[in-house]
Amino acid sequence: MFYGIRSIFVGIFMAACVSLPAAALQPATGKVVLSIAGNVGEKNSATAALFDMEMLQKLPQHSFTTLTPWDKQPIKFTGPFLRDVLAAVKASGTTIKAMALNDYQTSIPADDAQKFDVILAYKMNDADIPVRTKGPLFIVYPYDTKSELRSTVYYERSAWQLKSMTIE
Amino acid sequence: MAGRTNNRRYLLWLAVGTATMALAMASLLVFELAQKRAIERSSAIGSDSLTALTFQFEREFLRLRQVLSEAVAKGDASDMGALAMRNDIFQSRLTLLLESPSVAVLKSREEYRKGVLDLRPMVAELDQALGAKFINRRALADVLAELNRLGADVQALTQAANSEEARLLEQQADVMGQQNRLIVWLTLAQLALLMIASASLVVRQRRQEAERLALEQLTDELREAQFRAEAASRGKSQFLANMSHELRTPFNGLMGMLGLLKGTQITATQGEYIQTAQESAGHLLTLLNDVLDMSALETGKLALKPMAAHLPRLLAEVNALMSPLAKGKGLDFHMRLPDAPLPQVSVDETRLKQILFNLISNAIKFTAAGQVVLTLCQRMLDAHTLEVVFAVRDTGIGIEPQAQLRLFQRFYQVEGSATRRFGGTGLGLEISQSIAQLMHGAITVESVVGKGSTFTATLQLPMVAEAQVPAAAAAPAPPAPTSGATQGMRVLVVEDHPINQKLVGLLLARMDCQIDFCENGQLALERVQQEVFHLILMDVNMPVMDGLTATRLIRALPGTVARTPIVVVTADVMNEARDHALLAGANDFISKPLNVEQLRGIVQRYAAAGMA
User: What residues make up the domain containing A117?
Assistant: First the structure.
């Protein structure tokens, strides 16, 4: 009960003002899908902040539909804003090193999360994303909103099959 | 005309040049846009490079094969989770190769069929083996064998992708190069056009400058020519004036002598001859006066001397002079005056009379039979100005409309032959018109050929108060010719011309004056300091010292001699001649040719004053 009220409370707060520091991070109860290490203020394990899918789903959710270079059709992406995820772990740094399941690595300037509505998507066209189709997590920029986003720089930052991030 | 055609051609060239330039720029723009689009497209498609996709694919293929081979070797279930993960990741790469738009160019190649499409049965087999409840090592080993067999094809795919990408890049570079060449050519063409345009601009500018200079030079030449022409015209006028002036001196003698001759004992026939000679001389004098007036008008030296005048008296004088002329030709001449009394006006009587004489004598001259009528009308323009209209109507030969226009021009007479038939300088109407204009008026003409003409002089004359005008009766009457008054009067005649000396001498002798002669101003100045004279008649143009200087010096002398009456006598009838004389200190001024009566009047006036 206590837990429920508290999360509603946090949710309202997050909706009202996303830059507000999140409350202390709960330990992951389900399968860990994302670990955030490096300069993070909130950890729920010895070295990193670990997220299961439920924790990500409890953050404010957002959706947008955009064309990507990897598909012929526009796709609807759903998930929390990257900046909300970073706020939840009290990340402080300039660079996010994102790592994918296939060892793909990319560096994302921390500013990107503030400048653009970058989503940490776990749903494509309202369906969970299996590993076989770039899942389970996919860093997506709203490519259709700004022409500068439709460039290799941002395409390279869009890591799919994301498994971990390191804040530097 | 040529200039306009030139200009039009220039504008045409300008338009053509501009259009060409615009066209070149537009095509350049189109090329650049096309290039931009090509680049955008290539970046959109190639955003995930083909080689990267195939490389990643091959990498995952190899990792899957390795994990699988380990699993097959170990033969337990502990690695199955990792194998499933590798399978998933591998299949995500496979999906990309099947679906990514970037791969489109590769799909037609044999390597794609072998390295991607032919993989699908193996993948299905692996999925089945992994989905089974129990691990089927045999099935896994089969899949591993298949993977080993496909290794070469997968690598071939990577190489194919590599060569395809290289080909694409080459193609792009080719297209870019082509477009670049075109752009370079277009730019060069534009440059050439620009050069041509600026060169032609320079040429045009130079030509215009040259034309402008030529025009300026022409203007200068014209100005110079005009100046020369004006100078020549002035020179001629001056020559005419000088000539007339020179003519007046001998003429003076001629007229004077004729007058004297008339007073001697002669027969009636001789008297007639002298009369005719005098009339001819009078006519000649009019002509000379016309020429002098003309040159005065031309040089702007003719000024009016308005004085309060009594129009009825003036008209009576005109009538007295013109009536005999008309009567002589058997014409009826009369005047029609308004019923209302004519107010006093300020006018130069001599010049007004000149106009009327000119119009009336012209009318008489060109009328063979019938009548000449002078009609006078008056109208108040405002409280101070009276408009007086003198209309002279005749029943003469009339004037053609075209001729009327040129009537007031110099030397013009109605017909070329008219000069011979009717005589005259042809200056009269121009002079009258000029004088009328000086009087804020004009002379107009209406005429019907064969019926007659009407010349109308409309003048605006300022009115004066009655009291200022001497009544007709009060006009200065010439003093009674009493020879007694002038008897023994000592007159000094300062005159260099022997004929004039002789004439003046004879005239004065007839008045019983005692006469002394001096040939120039210097001698006169010395003479007056030795003797006392009652009157000095002073010529102006003389050698050694002119009359005006002598007059000034005499006036500057000490004693009573400075007050000796001096009358300047000159053939110079220009307006300023009188002013100069009076300014120099002369008491009076008379012009040559000398009129007996005028001279007598003058001498008697000063005799009465000086000897009284």
Answer: 2-167
Q: Which residues pair with A91 in a beta bridge?
A: A40
Provide the domain count of chain A. 1
Token pair 């200190």: residue: B585
Contact B88/A130, CB-based, under 8 Å?
yes
Residue of B39, B42, B45, B89 to mutate, testing the A interface (most A Cβ within 10 Å of its Cβ): B89
Residue A33 to chain B, least CA–CA distance (Å)? 13
**pLDDT digits 0-9 by tens, B334-365:** 888 888 888 888 888 888 988 998 899 889 98
CATH 3.30.70 fits B2-200, yes or no: no
Q: Which amino acid is at B512?
A: D
Give A-chain residues touching B56 at CB under 8 angstroms: 102
Q: pLDDT (tens digit, 9 = 90+) per residue, B447-475?
A: 888 888 999 999 998 888 765 444 443 33
CA of A70: which chain B residue's CA is closest? Answer: B100
The enclosing domain of A153 has a CATH number of 3.90.420.10
pLDDT for the residue numbered B575: 65
Beta-carbon contacts of residue B377 (< 8 Å; ≥ 6 apart): B338, B388, B389, B391
Chain A residue set in contact with B, beta carbons under 8 Å: 69-72, 101-102, 130-134, 150-152, 155, 161
- Alpha helices, DSSP H only, in chain A? 2-16, 53-58, 82-88, 110-115, 152-157
Confidence (pTM): 0.43
Chain B residue with minimum CA distance to A101: B89
What percentage of chain B exceeds 90 in pLDDT?
Answer: 10
CA distance B512 to B604: 11
Tell me the average pLDDT across B492-502.
85
**If you classify domain B483-611 with CATH, what class do you get?**
alpha beta
Inter-chain CB proximity A101 and B89 less than 8 Å? yes
In chain B, domain spans? 2-200, 307-474, 483-611
Closest CB to A131 among B48, B88, B100: B88
ipTM surpassing 0.90: no
Q: Model confidence over B76-123: pLDDT tens digits?
A: 666 777 888 888 888 888 888 887 777 777 888 888 888 788 888 888
pLDDT at B521 over 60: yes
- The beta-carbon neighbor of A102 closest among B44, B56, B102 is B56
B137 to chain A, closest Cα gap in Å: 24
Comparing B2-200 with B307-474, is the CATH topology the same? no
Superfamily of domain B307-474: Histidine kinase-like ATPase, C-terminal domain (3.30.565.10)
Q: What's the mean per-residue pLDDT of chain B? A: 81
